Amino acid sequence: xxxxxxxxxxxxxxVLCLVSEPGFASGLLPExxxxxxxxxxxQDWFWCADQAMGxxxxxxxxxxxxxNRIAQGCIHLSGNRRLLGIALFAIAxxxxxxxxxxxxxxxxxxANEHHYGLGTDSPGQWVKxxxxxxxxxxxxxxxxxxxxxxxxxxxPRRWWLWTALTxxxxxxxxxxxxxxxxxxxxxxxxxxxxxxLEARISSLATRAGIVGAxxxxxxxxxxxxxxxxxxxGIFATKRIIIFxxxxxxxxxxxxxxxxxxxxxxxxxxxxxxIIALQSGLILLALWLTHLLGPAAIRRFESRxxxxxxxxxxxxxxxxxxxxxxxxxxxxxINAFIRSIEHHADRFALDLTHDxxxxxxxxxxxxxxxxxxxxPGWFRKNFRMDHPSLDDxxxxxxxxxxxxxNPAGTEGHGTSGL
Length: 417
Ligand SMILES: [Zn+2]
Prior knowledge:
four-stranded mixed beta sheet; elongated
């Protein structure tokens, strides 16, 4: 494998993504308020702190020798049953990582959101959400961590490939069951009470070629004021989810255009692109660990306390490699997801022909979400997985082919659907 060529290609992709096009105001969005600028700056700093923690925690656990001591304790506790020892250490490491991240998570996810009037949850609800997240994480790591470590013993040269391939059906399974088993743990999902609106959404779905997707309302107002919508699930678990915050803050035309955007994700099968992306990132991280891990272990064996990658004490090294791959590819991943989102915007306009409602909903969202129209190169490349609202507004200003070709379209113009 030509490592030099791969590194150069990665560098080229990063450079291409970092070159942002010169922006110009769409004329649609108001100037950012001082509060919005402060909020977005705080989000930038939190993002940097989150990234730093992703490196500091595994490095501290490795170099302090703590990881190896706990790993040996877990092996001892398991009575030398390897799979049980792996599960115990995976749980111990995830608990350490969670605990060390907790103060930052509280500051970022609770205190700061409430400070800017965006959070609506009580401290008890926040703690409950964190505990549910921790339990799901502990179950997941205890079940999955044996996969790489079993393949490291069974197929030392290709363990990274077999592990990544094993994870693909698991990612698919997660997307399949998440709406049924995981999402209801923290939120309520109920059918739309407005049956006339439900009928209009169903008719929109039929025109989009979507059959059998449930339309549900999520009680997002329990935790946040942000209006939004989602698509979740695959096959029989597919559903269009409208946040209850949207029902109160947007009119019917605006809601329909947002829902049409979500339908665009279905029609383009975007969930499968995300599964492919997740699988590719895992593959890259495991391959990097396979390539560089043994040399790093030889170099630091006396401090880390273990001499082989197949020792469960190397688990922080796998997390380190994954965090490194995610950080290095973030601009490229965000650019890819932004292109998916742009196509969903186009789909929504093609389906509804309601550019006016799309514009007014953008202005409302910018106000509620404390949005800064011009994100700047750092925010755009590292934090934004949606086109900036200014970019979206510029697109809305120029994209309206149905006006020139009314005979070839099915929509109902700007008067709604
Ligand atoms: Zn979207």
